[in-house]
């Protein structure tokens, strides 16, 4: 039973927040197109040759996009059933951050700062997240990461200690003449190496340095198994529960995934299989 | 009960589409040898010194191969029980794409275009996929990827947003003098870094740039756990189901793998254990 | 039932080893702040420009930190219920190693040695491990790694043999003129390649060298699946056991995780599910 | 019940093939030490400066090691209960290959060939595999890899096709002036990129080239999930079976791991849980 909207506010609300009616879908698709276009323009504007040719046009378009997004933001605040809740939500904050930088660029006309501000508009692309299809999958990934976040934090701490020690050792072994000018630079090299990125801008030249580097590489290569194992195991548990957990008809509520240690649904309190 | 083929069409059909008779096997093995040979020739022909010595021979061979594959394609269309269905299938399209480029090279004699066209012949190797042994394993991998495709798409979207933001930030931090000439170039560098490829053609030089780069590397290194975890968990579920799912004698149909959320076989509708 | 501490020793013990009282928490937080500060100073002191400006200050601070940590170490020995056990424990040894290098730097005034010693102070950061929150997660990761340690050692041995053979082959194929000056250098290159680090300081130039390198890369890329698979499977088993293993009320003791092959709790001997 | 050995053959057999008696252990440890020493010497001998200083000593040592290993090989053949079976076994062949190269170096005195031959001695280190401790873990890894070998082969074929197509495309897009001199060189670059090694000796310079490279990197980064997922799932299945499969007292034979699709032990034919 859908109620025919009467007031302007209700009509706008259906267009902006619904996903099932034709006007709402058209509005969403158009919005996504404009967002992608504006991000592409920010990126292209940073290329010197393109800026020289189309800088003026881009400046106008940037302001047009900013005005569109501002009106859209105000409309969302206007039609939201709980305005403060929308404004505090992740999407509300992103919506606001998508328009503020252009206005700030008026009051701080310094070129360099203007560039910093310009970048934040890229955040606009996050609005694509509103597309409902992906929210559930994102929820799945988010829950698996949350459930294993402490293990991953512990792992990152181990990585941090390892690169600190190896970075300091490499500074002592290789020294300034081979590009290791300080311990922080050694630590940077150790991060480049343990993550297997390996730019090659700094690389060990001496025999003991290369032996230590080899050790670090093999550790980094093997240790990658740890976060992967943590997340794999967590997701396997979640799949297992989704499949075998709740028989037909006993699903407690709309919550389809439960923490791996949950005995009761944390949404509705019903005991789980 | 195999029926003895009577007409030419039936005989050809048994040679081309069957896998159990000796002529069919010989036909397949010969075809694979010719495909590999033609791919190797296309590759070698691109080496300047080899092209100078054998360019003429390669040109003749290329046309011989193209004619062989054209005849084979026409034969397949001729003997197919449902011709339109074969032509629309993935293999039908690949079979056609394997011969078209050589003909196109007649009408568009520009060297550069000719080279582009030449490359597509590499697609011929896909015909090897017809080898029945691998189809089932490919099906396994494909189902696991399909079942987790939305999660992986969500993950790729997250990567895209991250490299956009970090790429823009690096452009602002490092600037033109350190090789970051524009935001798109910064984004390219961020992709090279987050995927741990790390060419080193562009690399950060300043302290804040290196700190941001370190963050990106550790994120890329840790975040790799996500797609791996998704696919591992999916495959573990599939293995579990294959092993424990269907007891002997209750297998519903030839379908051996079911979606992890399936309550009924989606091929025959029989309820699953 | 907590007993009110009477003697100085008991009071100190509560502050140093407890985690629940306010003074103990403040003590821990302050200690962590000082440790991080001292590590940062060691690192910054290695940057030539910062050392020139603040070297004197850093020298004084270094001695202040060393004295603080020395007093703290002596206090810990004093209040420990079993002094020898604390001194032999991993944390006791790390506590001692955190202060010794500065004293050694008095007797061995050579700059180079002093630098080596300075580095070991980074180990101080390990004291952060005392933070109780992370101990359980660390225990989880440690048990999973221990349970799969022999498999991972076997895997590392396989990597070692592979890089030895490929490194020797590359030395023969590429030779001195392409940067492979000896077998050990070839082995170093093979480690850089199989771990997918790829600095690019040494890289193959000849056709057979590049073919062998391609093979090594694909092996390294595929073989990464082995340690990851081992740890993933081990952690999935552990999750499975934590979830389904012990029904409410039958938990044998405080031990929550059991080896995957355990029939009885190795802490209290009670039979497991 | 161990029978006291009487003949020389029996005594030797106990020393060489047993692991429980003191002489057998000492023999094994000594052998491993000699193997490692000989491998290290081969490696060091390839370093020009070390060869100049110790080349003569190394030459003598090399012959001493070769004679030791030859006597050992002949002894093994002599005491083996089934001589032909030992000689055909993997270890028998490796034992022989460990001594042949030095003898071959007499008849083919060319320096370059001599170097090729020298390398094969590194294979000696494989004899370490005899250490019984690791054999079972190796068996576990081997079974998991065998069970998933067809899936991994399919995956490698997919990688091969991808790098062929992308390598050819990059040759067309970037061309000779950016270091892509031929399609095989493009394929080499694609392998370096998809495996995330990224030497940086060849790297794209044009905008479409970098876009294609970015695509390849993200594919390579995501697709790594496939072999990892396959092996993880296989090992999880094996762990599951080891844990829950065979209740105490029903173990059919010494075989502890069964294929994931086995209904009966393939060693003794007993039905599996």
Principal-axes geometry of chain A comes out as: flat
Q: Give start-end ranges of low-pLDDT stretches of chain A.
A: 109-118, 121-133, 245-273
Give the topology string of chain A: H per helix, E per strand. Answer: HHHHHHHHHHHH
Integer tally of domains of chain A: 2
The number of distinct helices of chain A, counting runs of at least 4 residues, comes to 12
- Rg of chain A (C-alpha, Å): 26 Å
CATH H-level superfamily title of the largest domain in chain A: Voltage-gated potassium channels. Chain C
**Binned strand content of chain A:** under 5%
Main beta-sheet strand count, sense and barrel state of chain A = none
Assembly type of the chains comes to homotetramer
Total E-strand runs of chain A: 0
Q: Which two chains share the most extensive interface?
A: A-B, 56 and 51 residues
Q: State the CATH architecture of the largest domain in chain A.
A: Up-down Bundle
In terms of topology, how is this protein built?
The structure is a homotetramer of 273-residue chains.
Chain A lengths: L7 H10 L4 H24 L2 H32 L3 H6 L1 H8 L2 H8 L3 H10 L11 H16 L1 H26 L8 H12 L12 H17 L1 H20 L29
Helix pairs in contact in A: 1-2, 1-3, 2-3, 6-7, 8-12, 9-10, 9-11
Main location (chains A, B, C, D): membrane
Keywords (chains A, B, C, D): Ion channel, Ion transport, Membrane, Potassium, Potassium channel, Potassium transport, Transmembrane, Transmembrane helix, Transport, Voltage-gated channel
Protein name (chains A, B, C, D): Ion transporter
